[in-house]
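Troubleshooting: if your tokenizer reports a length mismatch, compare your output against this known-good record of 388 residues.
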Amino acid sequence: MSQSFDDISAQLRRRHRQSSRLKWISMGALGLAGLFLVLFFADMLSKGLPAFQQAQVQVEIDYNEDAQRMGRAALDPEVSRLVSRTFERLIPVRMRDNPELLGTTETRWVLADSEVDQYLKGNRHELNPAQQALVDKLVEQGRLKLKFNTTFFTSGDSKMPEASGILAAAVGTVMTMLVTLAIAFPIGVMTAVYLEEFAPDNRLTQIIEININNLAAIPSILFGLLGLAIFINFFGVPRSSPLVGGMTLALMTLPVIIIATRTALRSVPDSIRHAAFGVGCSRWQVVRDHVLPLAMPGIMTGSIIGLAQAMGETAPLIIVGMVAFIPDVGASFTQAATVLPAQVFTWAGEPEQAFVEKTAGGILVLLAILIFLNATAVILRKKFERRW
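Known-good structure output:
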């Protein structure tokens, strides 16, 4: 029995209403995701931007004989309570390295204690009323102010919040990523080239492809357990070193690079291969001289994204011990080191209020690096992208 015109019109109206509801639900989901992203960045900025400022106090340093044993003796007793202990500990060391300082005086800006810093920023602190009055007095005299926190970028980790920085973690991150790139990129690209251009389509290669896809989806902490069992326990690679961290992250990045490289190789038209074969090129010459150069922008894009993902990983590096307290920059790939995500994780567990802004500041630096890497990947893709 044929439907009437009214029935068909009613069905069309229902379909249009359903389509409209789906459209608004999708827009609402997109808006909600955008709202969460804005709130996240706003929270990180509000907590992290104060980390880029640090309280400094102007003091007069008297290099006397007592200061050779106790740095506090070189400072005015009233003001010394506001000075960071890390600076006081450096005075005897400086006098030992420079004997000519004995009997001289010097006026300079030095790090203030973290409680003073938190007081100036309006955060929770533990200064008593007398210390607060002294801080207010020094601020009025221009001897105490917030300045750009160069220490955050030029020093390593410290138990004193005001002296903590990301330099050691940043260098450790670079060294770890260099190891990851040196291992994952050539092995990943060569594996993808073999599977895509040379390997026969049989059950063995199908099993390999399935396992590669599965490896790209398993939790990253399992790669940490694998690195602990193989690289540290079996091969004896130094624990907490950029070498073992980079090798572990290379295992995790390999599937991403292989999949991205295979996708880039597939995007090259078969006509390019046929034309090369037509002029007498061997299969290796076709791949080396024609397919790989054309696929390289896509390969680079996928590799950069894979490295950016590896840079943000914390779980596998915790398993291999890269959460050590590292105050100084490591000199080699086999010395103990840490990375930015692990440094942020360590700061997040500290009880002092000042470490809260250090944690958020470290997250902002890490986000800036990741956004830069992803933006670089997008720019490279747009610049060298070819449409066939």
